[in-house]
Here is the input.
Amino acid sequence: MTSVTVLGLGPMGHALATAFTAAGHPTTVWNRTPEKGDDLNAIVADTATEAITASPLVVVCVLNHQVARSLLDTDALKGRTLVNFTGGSPRQARAMATWAAEHDIGYIDGVIMATPAAIGGPEAALFYSGSGDAYETHRPALAALGENANYLGEDPGRAAAFDASLQDLFWTAMSGVVHTFALAAAENIGPSDIAGHAKAMLGFFSDMIDQVARQVAAGHFPGDDSTITSAAAAMDHILGTIRANDLDNGVLSAARAEMQRAIDAGYGSEGVGRLAAL
Ligand code: NDP
Here is the structure.
């Protein structure tokens, strides 16, 4: 069983450490606030450097890349593998990988698509990119975090790029979810009256994602089912209802403006998938 070090015991770092210990990996942890490690079946190190020297595999999961870098002692990390689960952009991940290579540190950038409670189980989706050799070496230990692991290649920024693309969908969809309930309430529709219908509507998205993926791959965006012009007309009347209720309409207004850009560029008769390739 590979020894593992976890730096950072926020909700996610704590869940990662819990999963490693549950799988039987001798685990050393360090956190700025050490008491957060008290309930773990792990050694709580006094310093980050002491924790790093305890294991060949070092996982860091803290607030941001700046904090992560401030904790990482390059001399102690030399010859070890660093898996960075700290959220960041593709550019930050590549910068971290360059820094790691300069110091002879094996670098893997990791992305977690899960809540802390899901870590270790089948619902935790994990994305990795960076050193393929380091990933292969430590894949058995990383499996403790979840079997749904996706290695995306040597480009260290690729996992963060998947993260950004998928979170683009998540947050714009989440905005739609909360706005649905705000508009429904303004129109005297109770949450339980509309929740089931909202879920059924989101069910369409699985097919739509496949359709747009096919269209983007082919570079062809037929408007057979619905055109950008007709989608814009639908948005106009929904925006009218939103404004009539004095609600904030920022996200839908921005989506409507995207439609207008496509119409102005001459794509009004094409399908909405065209917006992915404007
Ligand atoms: P936070 O993002 O709040 O990070 C908390 C951790 O960062 C704690 O260990 C905290 O130490 C440490 N920290 C913050 N500032 C400093 C500092 N100046 N010096 C040293 N340590 C510091 O909590 P999470 O655990 O939720 O998230 C960690 C990472 O995991 C984030 O990048 C996040 O994007 C990612 N993530 C989180 C998910 C979640 O659902 N929570 C889901 C997917 C990814 P202390 O305990 O002492 O405050």
